Amino acid sequence: MIFSKILINWYSINKRDMPWRLTKDPYCIWLSEIILQQTQIKQGLPYYNAFLNAFPSVFKLAEAEESEVLKLWQGLGYYSRARNLHTTAKYIANDLKGAFPNTYKDLLKLKGVGDYTASAIASICFNETTAVVDGNVYRVLSRYFGITTPINTSNGNKEFKALAQELIDVNRPDEFNQAIMEFGAIQCKPQNPNCNICPLQNGCIAFNRSVINELPVKNKTLKIKKRYFNFLVIISNEKKTIIEKREHKGIWQNLYQFPLIETKKNTSIKAFEALLREHNLLKDRSFEFVLYNDEPIVHKLSHQHLYTNFWVVTIEELPVEGIPVEQVHDYAVPILIGKFIERFNFNRML
Questions:
Q1: pTM of the predicted model as reported, rounded to 2 decimal places
Q2: Which residues participate in catalysis according to the annotation?
């Protein structure tokens, strides 16, 4: 079809140089796709290089401790991706003897691998004719064909997948998939797309009807939850602090944090002192405390906004076993806490 030929030709001229485009190794492709889920290339590229340097094979990744993987992932967010990455690496290394599944159907069975990732690996590594559909693909197809079906609905998922499957070049599925994604990323951009030099301009319904900015359509159903986090940065005279592992499921599972008090709203210093006096770590102990940040630090996640305060508590002796403050950098922590650690600079206390 002319559509696919135009895209592939455009891709051959305009594609960006990326390390994962120089290989058909399913380990490298899988790693890149997991890292780039909900992550821009400029942010994900250093992580991709770091992971390959630390774990050059699926066996090396499988041998690593989860804490090592999470530490290297720190800053990317959506940490379930890192945990699934590690789990799948162990399954492939130990159960499959290092051999990646080579079909879309079998790739879907891997933990953390959905339709998009399975299609990408199957087409790029094994030349299977299975179309990818990501945010870039939704945008290109909805604009070119003038599709108004919301992309975040089951009907939308089915419609766009079927259309992409119909359009894919059966002889060059790997090139087509990479071409349409790249086209959406740097040509048919979300804002200010380069319509004047677009090779698909003549047939693009959105361009010809002047509705570029209205497509794709997405239902706004997500309700953002507000949460109020208060981290206790407890420091003893011996220059030790307390850091805890988040064991329960949810955000930041298996990452480390300072002791946390969650409140229903932002709390005044006077009101928070009463909470500290009753906290199991500080009850019946003498301590001093100060609020580190003047205003709550707002950390935005896809489904919730965290209004965060860091309370620096000084105490003569820790109530539980702690760690030397200089070791706080060794733990895998959420980016929110990582940024605080860098700003606070525990090393200056030594």
A1: 0.83
A2: 33
